[in-house]
Amino acid sequence: MSRTSTRRGRPGRRGAALAAALLVLVTLPAASTADGAGGADQDRAPTDTVQGRAPADNVILLIGDGMGDAEITAARDYSVGAAGRLALDTLDTSGRRTTFSVDERGRPVYVTDSAADATAWATGRRTVNGRVSKTPGTNRPLPTLLEKARRHGYATGSVTTASVSDATPAALTAHVTDRSCKGPAGMAECPADTRAAGGAGSVVEQTVAARPDVLLGGGADHFAQTVTDGPYRGRTVLEQARAAGYQVVRDRAELTAARTDRPVLGLFAPDYLPVEWTGTPAAPGGTAPQRCAVHNPARPAGTPTLAKSTRAALGQLTARRDRATGKGFFLQVEGASIDDRAHEADPCGQIGETVAFDRAVAVALAYAGHHPRTLVIVTADHGHATQILPEGARSAGLSSTLVTDEGGRMLLGYATAGPGGTQEHTGVTVPVAARGPLAHRVLGLRENTELFGTVCAALGLR
Fold it and tell me: Taking CA atoms, which of 99, 228, 401, 435 is between 20 and 30 Å from 390?
């Protein structure tokens, strides 16, 4: 949390009253709501606009999937040392976010999944686990930040290390009953969303129709599926994307060479991008002390890092800036495999993806340094199972000992599932930090829905 300095002087009454009033105006938090399915600032008109111009030209929202305090601390301890600082540690305006979802009656569910929490910030409403940007009870579509930003003339983008149809990016571009409905061949859990039933189709079909200017990640297999109904019936979703004007890029070189006058679809893997680091997974009774391998032989040489994709997306979106209105862009960046590797009790994979995400944070902060009317927000969607334990502890679950960059030994435990099981999310609050216009709106304990109102206020979205 940022510090507030104090003075020992005794100002006059008028001066003290004026100072108190100014402090209230600067730090007053957004109004909240007790509605389990709703959220603070849900449809509130922005109040911080000055002379018709929104406070920010650009917003960069960076999401570490499954990146709770333990996951951040493990990455910090391993890579820069216990007294070191990651890029995400340098944002001194910080607070906490709740993460709970709801059931179909709006009652709290204390441990969220990625779909429900992404829906919370993307729409300002909580929903049931597994659902993507639809209401919890009536299963109706909710307007998203990306859709609102496009309507207001902003360029938009989404970058991820998962499939671009995975839950977190999907919450910006699609509305489906279940997150599994990524492509036309996988609609079993979403019968009402099929084109045949009058719905909008799978996540990838809806994402192409939403037409973000930049869409980078994995998921080539979902785009290779054949559309079963509607005007593109019998053609693949990739053909639909090309018909919509997308230039398709498959590796780092093609991404670098992409033109700025057409939307960009980067498909760098069949599904998730291979992780950057590898090592021995946690095991019953622990592992021998290990150093992580910082090169993954299963990762193709041309696969762009998250930092590279973020930098390319920022270049593309900056080129699309509306010179007449001054409107810039909204970009979401997700480090998806922090969560994926934590599920598998894979500490090296998890830490490597956290470090890769942190490098993307550094890219965003460098951009904001040159473009001061940029709001950067860094947060997570939920906590995960990682525990940092005393070196001599014997975990009841799985554990692994890592030899850190500063030469220490760090014992990580995973005890929400046994051997062969999947480690679970946790229901803790998560950190949120910001820099730029309206950064103060993350201070204190905030609801997970409040990010929606903050981004809307920053960009002047109604």
Answer: 99
Helix intervals (H) in 93-185:
114-123, 145-151, 167-173
pLDDT at 1: 36
Radius of gyration in angstroms for the set of CA atoms belonging to the chain, rounded to a whole number: 22
Cα distances (angstroms) measured from residue 118 to each of 48, 71, 246, 381:
25, 19, 25, 7
Token match 């599920």: residue? Answer: 343
Pick the closest to residue 383 from 3, 100, 17 (CA basis).
100
Distance from C-alpha of 225 to C-alpha of 239, rounded to nearest angstrom:
10
Compute the distance between CA of residue 241 and CA of residue 212 in angstroms, rounded to an integer: 11
30 burial level (CB within 10 Å; 0-12, 13-18, 19+): middle
Buried b (16+ CB within 10 A) or exposed e, 46-84: beeeeeeebbbbbbbbbbbbbbbbbbbbbbbbbbbeeee
pTM of the model: 0.90
Tell me how far apart the alpha carbons of residues 359 and 214 are, in angstroms, rounded to a whole number: 20
Structure tokens at 21: 């009033």
**94 labelled catalytic:** no
Task: Scan for tokens 């599904």, then name that residue.
Answer: 271
pLDDT tens-place string over residues 203-252: 999 999 999 999 999 999 999 999 999 999 999 999 999 999 999 999 99
Residue 100 contacts residue 114 (beta carbons within 8 Å)? no
Distance CA 68, CA 64 (A): 8
Tokens of 77: 């301890």
* Annotated catalytic residue, options 79, 94, 101, 114: 114
Dihedral of alpha carbons 460, 370, 264, 119, sign: negative
Q: What is the pLDDT of residues 96-136, one digit of tens each?
A: 999 999 999 999 999 999 999 999 999 999 999 999 999 99
Annotate 394-421 with b (16+ C-beta within 10 A) or e (fewer).
ebebbbbbbebeeeeebbbbbbbeeeee
Q: Exposed, middle or buried by CB within 10 Å (0-12, 13-18, 19+), for 424?
A: middle
8 Å CB contact between 59 and 452: no
Distance (Å, rounded) from C-alpha 92 to C-alpha 433?
Answer: 7
**Residue with structure tokens 């006059």?**
12
Distances (CA, A) of 39 to 25, 98, 219: 22, 11, 31
Answer for the pair 314, 367: CB distance below 8 angstroms, yes or no. Answer: yes
SS3 441: helix
Sign of CA dihedral 283, 85, 307, 165: positive
